[in-house]
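Example for tutorial group B:
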């Protein structure tokens, strides 16, 4: 295994990229718990980055290392140029070959690249030629169940120069439905020499351990499980590497993190934009107690941080 990659993935846990979710603030919150997991940015459109540099999307702190910056697109030279530019921020560049969203695949980006493996390989080759940091790819099992090409696709990406793979155990057709097939990932693992992280439906230390057993992967990438629980990646690291089971955060702890999350988004984006941006996170932080749904309904309409905090503080008093 490439030594640089080995160091970046040594914790065996990564934050899966999520557009509109794994932004600078969420990455920072995850890092407050885990100093070693591999962070990943949201996907950064190579077309957009070519037009405008250094928006909020590229922001990082010193302690964010190890961090991977994910690029999307389908034009090899454009992606390569963007990767070169991002080298000043990134420890690794990841290419998105798994996004299932209609508007992305229509433009031959994301998972559409699994149907055009020559182009995908050219992207990897062209990018690899201009950067000196590791390059990874993230893809799915295939476009549909009739096109399960993940083994050949992974081999081709490895031949083209990819140093690391994250694979989501679903097809594009499944979007996010059904269950991720961790056992199939073992077929890829057996057929490539570069490290593989398994992804999909890892939501706890126990599911991470099961995923590793089924997939024989080198580690796990965690996406939605980190919503409303920035400590999950740390808890997974402790469990799979040391066998130590740490408790999930209590409601009180979650409320404190939610307040911090909103405050930091306000600092990053401005008060009102920050508050509105955080509305999507509220259901993940506040669930499983009487009256949660009514409270969530009220909170997502609020535009004043002090009022939000007062409402949140009342939850603890009333439980
Ligand atoms: C809201 C959302 C945004 C996502 N954005 C991206 C993205 O930008 N790039 C990417 O490769 N995958 C993206 N994904 C897919 C995740 O990285 C991950 O593969 C998927 O959610 C399965 O893992 P999980 O079950 O741990 O969430 C996104 C998923 C969600 C739910």
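The residue assignment follows.
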């Amino acid at each position: 295994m490439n030594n640089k990659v080995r160091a970046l993935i040594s914790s065996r846990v990564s934050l899966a990229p999520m557009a509109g979710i794994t932004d600078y603030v969420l990455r920072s919150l995850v890092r407050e718990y885990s100093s070693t997991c591999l962070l990943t940015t949201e996907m950064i459109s190579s077309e957009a980055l070519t037009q405008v540099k250094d928006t909020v999307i590229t922001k990082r702190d010193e302690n964010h290392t190890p961090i991977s910056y994910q690029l999307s697109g389908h034009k090899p030279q454009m992606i390569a140029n963007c990767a070169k530019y991002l080298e000043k921020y990134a420890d690794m560049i990841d290419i998105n070959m798994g996004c299932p969203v209609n508007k992305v695949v229509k433009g031959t980006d994301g998972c559409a690249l699994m149907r055009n493996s020559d182009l995908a390989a050219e992207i990897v080759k062209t990018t690899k030629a201009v950067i000196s940091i590791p390059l990874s790819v993230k893809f799915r099992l295939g476009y549909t169940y009739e096109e399960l090409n993940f083994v050949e696709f992974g081999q081709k990406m490895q031949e083209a120069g990819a140093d690391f793979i994250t694979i989501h155990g679903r097809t594009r057709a499944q979007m996010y439905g059904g269950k991720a097939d961790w056992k199939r990932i073992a077929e890829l693992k057996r057929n490539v020499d570069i490290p593989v992280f398994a992804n999909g439906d890892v939501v706890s230390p126990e599911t991470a351990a099961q995923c590793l057993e089924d997939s024989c992967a080198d580690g796990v990438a965690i996406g939605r499980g980190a919503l409303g629980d920035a400590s999950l990646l740390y808890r997974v690291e402790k469990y799979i590497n040391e066998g130590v089971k740490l408790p999930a955060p209590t409601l009180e702890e979650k409320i404190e993190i939610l307040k911090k999350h909103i405050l930091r988004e306000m600092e990053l984006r401005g008060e009102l934009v920050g508050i509105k941006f955080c509305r999507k996170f509220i259901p993940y932080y506040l669930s499983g107690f009487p009256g949660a749904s009514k409270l969530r309904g009220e909170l997502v309409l609020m535009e004043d941080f002090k009022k939000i905090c007062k409402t949140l503080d009342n939850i603890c008093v009333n439980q």
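The beta strands are 13-15, 39-45, 67-72, 92-97, 135-142, 164-171, 196-199, 219-222. Compare this with the pattern of hydrophobic and polar residues in the output above.
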